[in-house]
Amino acid sequence: MDDFNHRAKHPPILSSLTSITLAIHPSRPLPAFLSAVSSLLSSSPLQNFDIYSNSTRLSESSISPSSSTTTDTFWSRLVETHGQRLRRVSVHRMSVGMHAIEEICKKCVKLEEFFVVVEPDSLVRIHSFEYALVCLFLTHISYNPRRI
Q1: How many angstroms separate the Cα of 102 from the Cα of each of 88, 107, 135, 141?
Q2: Which of 32, 43, 95, 119 is the most exposed place for a label (fewest CB within 10 A)?
Q3: Digits of tens for pLDDT over the chain (148 positions)?
Q4: First-to-last CA distance in the chain?
Q5: Cα–Cα distance between 23 and 58 in angstroms, integer?
Q6: Distance of CA 78 to the CA centre of its chain
Q7: Helix or strand holding residue 36 (H, E)
């Protein structure tokens, strides 16, 4: 990913990229992958961001304390860089922390589609954030049943 990232930034071949779908393999170190993705997308006018895990094993690791910090940092960077343009955020087969969900809901003012996996005890809390999504017309919220 690092080599691709370097080649894509010099010259910036992704400077007009508006939509991306990424798959994460469970053997890939999550912090390194998310850091590379964040850097790769930094100059793109991104509007649609889709990410999913090839395995349910990643969803379990993504909620560990160290991985949670990594993913929160990633989401903060993504929202800070692209939040004013994002129309779709779709996350499948991996958990997203409540801090990140709140930030997405409050700062992605044009968000129309939101797909996310949360822990079962967080389902009620999500409703308090979604009020900020004035353009939202499609949402899909699911939870990880293994955690019940």
Answers
A1: 15, 8, 16, 14
A2: 32
A3: 566 556 555 556 778 899 999 998 877 788 888 888 998 898 899 999 999 988 765 444 443 444 567 788 999 999 999 999 999 999 988 878 888 988 998 899 999 999 988 777 777 777 777 667 777 877 777 766 654 4
A4: 35
A5: 11
A6: 8
A7: helix 30-40
94: how many CB neighbours lie within 10 A of its CB? Answer: 25
- Nearest by Cα to 106 from 137, 74, 123, 83: 83
Tokens of 60: 């379990």
Q: Report d(CA 129, CA 147) in Å as an integer.
A: 22
Helix, strand, coil share (%) of the chain residues, nearest 5: 45, 20, 35
Q: Give the pTM.
A: 0.80
CA dihedral 122, 92, 47, 45 (to 10 degrees): 110
How much is the pLDDT for 112? 92
Segments making up each domain of the chain, as ranges: 2-147
